[in-house]
Each structure stands twice: as structure tokens, then as C-alpha cells.
């Protein structure tokens, strides 16, 4: 058993330090794979076959081992895993002294083996799930569905019901290149448990990492409950932030989700909605950290990004003229806020902390530059969309 060989020395070191006893572990073939005396690792331990055959503990006194090579006084006992003897534990010392530890130490070693096996199995399953998810979220309707359907059947997942994609973004989990050799302070197992506690309420919910800083939840939706989903996201953000702080990795946690869709292609669609929502939400200056695809502010920004660039090009001359003004930044901010306040002069003035007359003066300047009627919703909407899509204006907005 490969994982047994990989963890045997670690088990010996942890256990012998805690209990202050010397010990060794052999595999089923009698090769020492863990030992307090590291120079013995890799050597053959002749008593393994004897203990394995007996299926019980055997005491080895000084007299009994006097003529045996590489055998020390103590007690040797079989190590069992899944009802099979996979090796032998040797506790080294006077049998009368170390004998009282045998059962306790063996139980401790077998418990660590089971825990290590569970963890190892988790990581193997997680890797398989992650690969499946990568194929799923990038699925196109013309793709070969055979492999995905086979995995779904094997795993018991069904995609004939709507599923909704939730993306959890934790940038602080992504270690810079210069820190790659530093030990990881949070395991995927711990994160999986945390995220499962917040979101898993159906056996077909799928949870997996998709890159070093993002996790995905594919929720099985029997009925869409917006308030419940929002509450789950709020709890998750709060809980994950506390979890990061407790592990001394402070940082922002953002969650975005798309709409629910049926079928394999529907999962991909929901994922791309969630990804677009996350990107748009993080680019906004709002303090919010939960973003829904059908939120009106998200939809507006999504619409702006989807508009054909040819649209804004028709107003480029006007925008260039505006950008050439000495107070261009003031005029742009004023107009955007004015639009976002529903063309209400008083509300916009309060939001900008300026006098109402100051705002009217600025709007009059815009009237002269664009020959625009700033009381017309249609005209203001066109200019608003053009400004929001213009790259130069976007760069300016990011600087303020």
C-alpha cells in the first residue's frame, strides 16, 4: 500500500514524540518503512512474517533476540487496515515496560492510517471531480457528451433538473511566485468542509476547486428560493472571512452566482453567467461582495460590455471633445452621477456634495459640448452607455 509507505515515518515520529517510546513499522513484506532509528529504514525485519502468521502480539525478550539480526527487545503487534494485516508495529524496550503501551499505540497508529486514507481518498476524488467540472463548465452543445454522461452515471449525478452555479473567489489563497515554497496554511480538505457546511443541502450538490483561488458550487435546484440563496451566501462570506483570519490569511471573499439552467450545456451557461457577474461586480466600486446575475446593476454593466463598440464610436468625436476640457473629470463624474440618480438634480447635487446651481452649471456645459438635452431620458441614456463603454473614460474612472 503506497500511502502506508508514505506516511509510516511521519506516524512513527509523531507517536514516539508524544509517548516517549521508540518504535518501528514494517510493511507486509517485512521491510522497515518507519523507525525511530532512521538508519534501520529499508532493512529487513525477520519477525514480521512470524507476527503476521500468528495474528497477535509477540513478546521479544533480550534472550530471545540475542541471536537474531536486526531484532530488538520489545513487543511486536500486527497492524490491521480494512480487516487485513498490512504490517507490523514494533515498540522497542523492556517488554514489561512497553507492553502496557502496545494496544494504545496500535489503536493510535491504525486510527492515523484510517484518517490518512480518508484524506488521500478525498484528494483523489477531488482531483477527479475538478477534472469533470473543467469539462462541464467549458461544455459546448456540439461537444461529445459520452465521457461526461459516463462520469455522471458513475457518480450518481443527474443534470435533467436545473442547476445553479455559485463561484467563490478568495484571492488570498493564490500564493505569489516568490512564496510558492512556503507551506500551505489552509488545506483543500478544510475549505471543502467549510463550503459544504454553508451550501450543501442536497446529495447532488457538487463542490470543487477550479483554480488556486476559486471554488465552484453546482447546486441542485428543486425550487429557486432567492432569499435562502442570498442568506447562504452571506453566511458563507462571513464564515470564510473569519476562517481566513483565524488562519492568519486575511483577505476579501466574493461570491457570484448565475441563473439556474437544465442539462450539461445549462451548467456551462450558468458558470459563464456567474463568472461574468463576478468580474463585473469586482470592477464596481461598491462594497458589496455578493453578486447575482439578475441584479439590475450587474445587468446594466453586463449590457454595457456587450454593446457593439461601433455604437460608442459614433459618439467618439463628442467624447474626445469632452476629454479635452480642463474640467473633463468633473463633468464626466457629474453626468454619470446625475444619470444614476434618475436625472434628479437635487439628489445628484447631494450625492456630489455640491450646490444645486453648481450642478446645473455643469449640465449646461455638457449641453454646449454635446448639444444634448439633459432632461431627456433617451438622450442621457445613450451618452451614459457610450461613456461607460469608452476605454479612456473607464481608465479615468479607475484612477479616481
Characterise the protein shown here.
By secondary structure, the protein is α+β, with helices and mostly antiparallel strands. It has three domains: 2-118, 2-Layer Sandwich (Beta-Lactamase); 138-304, Alpha-Beta Plaits (2-Layer Sandwich), CATH 3.30.70; 308-399, no CATH class. It contains 17 helices and ten strands. A five-stranded antiparallel sheet has the order 2-1-5-4-3, sandwiched between helices. Strands 7-8-6-9-10 form a five-stranded mixed sheet, sandwiched between helices. β1 (22-27) and β2 form a beta hairpin. α13 (328-340) crosses α16 (377-389). The chain is elongated. The mean pLDDT is 86. Pfam families: Diacid_rec, GGDEF_2, HTH_30. Belongs to the CdaR family. Residues 147-279 form the CdaR GGDEF-like domain.
General shape = elongated
At CATH's second level, what is the architecture of the largest domain? 2-Layer Sandwich
**Major beta sheet summary:** 5 strands, antiparallel
Number of helices: 17
Question: What is the count of structural domains?
Answer: 3
Order of helices and strands: HEEHEHEEHHHEHEEHEHEHHHHHHHH
User: How do the strands line up in the largest sheet?
Assistant: 2-1-5-4-3
Mean pLDDT comes to 86
Low-confidence stretches: none
Strand content: 5-15%
Name the structural class. alpha+beta
- The level-1 CATH class of the largest domain: Alpha Beta
Q: Could you give me the name of the CATH homologous superfamily of the largest domain?
A: Reverse transcriptase/Diguanylate cyclase domain
* Rg value: 32 Å
Distance between the termini: 60 Å
Domain Putative sugar diacid recognition: 5-136
InterPro entries: CdaR-like_regulators, CdaR_GGDEF, Diacid_rec, Homeodomain-like_sf, PucR_C-HTH_dom, PucR_C-HTH_sf
Family: Belongs to the CdaR family.
Pfam families: Diacid_rec, GGDEF_2, HTH_30
